Amino acid sequence: TPLDRIRNFSIIAHIDHGKSTLADRLIQRTGGLSEREMTAQVLDNMDIEKERGITIKAQTVRLDYKGHVLNLMDTPGHVDFAYEVSRSLAACEGALLVVDAAQGVEAQTLANVYQSIEHDHEIVPVINKIDLPAAEPDKVKAEIEDIIGLPADDAVLASAKSGIGIDEILDAIVARIPAPKGDVNAPLKAMLVDSWYDPYLGVVILIRVIDGSIKKGQQIKFMQEGSVHLVDRVGCFRPKIEQLADLGPGEIGFITAQIKEVAQTRVGDTITDAKRPAAEALPGFKEVQPVVFCGLFPVDANDFEKLRESISKLRLNDASFSFEMETSAALGFGFRCGFLGLLHLEIIQERLSREYDLDLITTAPSVVYRIHLTHSKTEPATTIELHNPADMPDPNRIESIEEPWIDATIYVPDEYLGSILKLCQDRRGIQKDLTYVGGRAQLRYELPLNEVVFDFYDRLKSISRGYASFDYHQIETREGDLVKMSILVNNEAVDALSMIVHRGTAEARGRGMCERLKDLIPRHLFKIPIQAAIGGKVIARETIAAMRKDVTAKCYGGDATRKRKLLDKQKEGKKRMREYGSVQIPQEAFIAALRMG
Ligand code: GTP
User: 391 by DSSP, 3-state: which?
Assistant: First the structure.
């Protein structure tokens, strides 16, 4: 396809503003699918995506419209997948900004719009859902201009649901979004935008060709990964798979190259010709690093092997989470896993339970800490990264601990502002900005990631009855007064419950945890102390009273010696139990205890 006939664009939208519905309409209008095939939303093709209404994996569709090839790049819609979003955006020259005519501009939209602007995109505003009685297109136009700073005069008014404005959107894409640039004679240079595992095709790689061209039988090289592969298929999605002879500059499509694992393909890598390589790789490549870690353990110890297999299978299709074996005194054998964020964690957890039918216990999520250690007798001073509170080094060697911080943007209707400010303050937030836009406050806070991973998002949503929106990116690590808090049940530390906390919030957290465990652990024949401790110092304590088995009841009063003997025997029994350390902590207790209140 000649360059001036190609348009590459993505759709930016806040969750629920109608991105998928609009994408389906565009596909339908340009003849990709029949009415009958349109029954299920096409782009969101994973179950969990559908249920949660969010897009997890990027997909792309090639549309033919009035002699032009339009490539619609779908992007993941959640902050956890920000890097994947950035690569998808880098593959496009423009974007449709879809804003709900009744809801207006939201925080998530903003973050993505700014990213899109950073990629020099031409942005076409689309005001969707104008069929709704509550639609206020003029107000939304004003918001787009005031809040985002984009001209919105020629925004397209549309209803993806009733099919209004679809041709106008397609015409605007052709007229307003610039054609890609590229040199067909230069050595091949293509960006690896995304990849996934397909049971029939193996690993499918979504690419955007910058220069040169790629065809079947070509030897290609991944410049960052350093590996060489033979291309065995080239094609595109309409959204059904169609094989093509080649992909030239400016084009978006897929290749397969007999690759077995997604982990061998890295988003943002540069694909070039193995024999005639490009001089340099594309800019912007980043190694994706998990930021949230937790342990996953099978409820039934016999499921460990099944868990290993299932995790390995999931990992085939998602190189962005990591896992390694972990053992816990309380929970047995399991895996320490790293995720891009809490949503990512939940998705993996949900897939394990749903697709692989596994009952799992998740330990307290932890972020990555940088710990500066002084030298010891045998080791020099050094800096380590800590993913697991259980691996906390000897406190005497700790010089300082740094924790990751984020920059968060929160949109919240005025009436909930007070409670949200308090929440941010309680979580050690530093307010950077507070402005009003329409009836809503736009808040900017710097927050320690550690205070956000537990339940910040849930709290935010419940405080604001779902109206607050939240978006963040990591900024830097900062030194903090951080300590490891252990939870002791019957004087034994339960490793799965230990966590790294700020000294200032430790007591409140410790108390909350002890109180919850008190309710969750059933009574035993002996008294069970539950303590939260920092080092050797107990900062909170609860006691579960003993269940008194009335052994003397059988004695019908009378015989005092016999009574005493029985009591002695019972004491012995208690001791043995304690020696075995046999407090039965029900599995639900772990999950419930970790749910911060
Ligand atoms: P994510 O995939 O989570 O980003 O959501 P989305 O932006 O793709 O939203 P989706 O297309 O799933 O639409 C969200 C809801 O809005 C659905 O219930 C749609 O039926 C509805 N919807 C989409 N477009 C319109 C529209 O033009 N008018 C009306 N009334 N409803 C719409």
Answer: helix
